[in-house]
Amino acid sequence: AISYLRSKVIPESHRATIMNWFRVPMNLITCGAFLCLHVDTISRDKTIVFAACFMLAVTGTFLSGRFIDVFKNYEGTKIDGDETEKPGLLIDEDKQEQLKEEVA
């Protein structure tokens, strides 16, 4: 499901770069959580770490819902009959218009 979403939104030419940039905050959150386990207050009571993870999960769920709402009616641009180029978020409007004119 996530691979389908990636292919729908992120063009192939930029996909690896964008996905690598999304790994940076995830790794920072993970390292921060592990480092917090060495703090005396948190090591005695893991509720703080659980609450922080819960808040991040709720935020992610909310943002996923917003993402779905924004791209609910999104369609790719048809090229050469059967092929479909999915312009994603990174192709500017001028290129999208140019692709539509080539098809018509």
Order of strands, widest sheet: 1-2
What's the rounded overall pLDDT mean? 77
Number of helices: 5
Strand content is under 5%
Helix proportion range: over 70%
Secondary-structure element sequence? HHHHEEH
Largest sheet: 2 strands, antiparallel
Give the structural class: mainly alpha
Regions with little confidence, pLDDT below 50 for 5+ residues: 77-83
Gross geometry: elongated
Terminal CA distance reads 32 Å
The gyration radius over C-alpha positions equals 20 Å
Overall number of strands: 2
Topology:
Layout: H1 2-9, H2 12-36, H3 40-44, H4 47-70, E1 77-78, E2 84-85, H5 93-103
Antiparallel strand pairs: 1-2
Walk me through the structure:
With 104 residues, the protein is mainly alpha-helical. The chain is 70% helix and 4% strand. The chain has five helices and two strands, in the order H-H-H-H-E-E-H. Strands 1-2 form a two-stranded antiparallel sheet. Strand 1 (77-78) and strand 2 (84-85) form a beta hairpin. It is elongated, with a radius of gyration of 20 Å. The two termini are 32 Å apart. The model is unreliable at 77-83 (pLDDT under 50).
Short description:
This protein is mainly α and 104 residues long. It has five helices and two strands; from the N terminus they run H-H-H-H-E-E-H.
Q: Which features does this protein show?
A:
mainly alpha; 104 residues; single chain
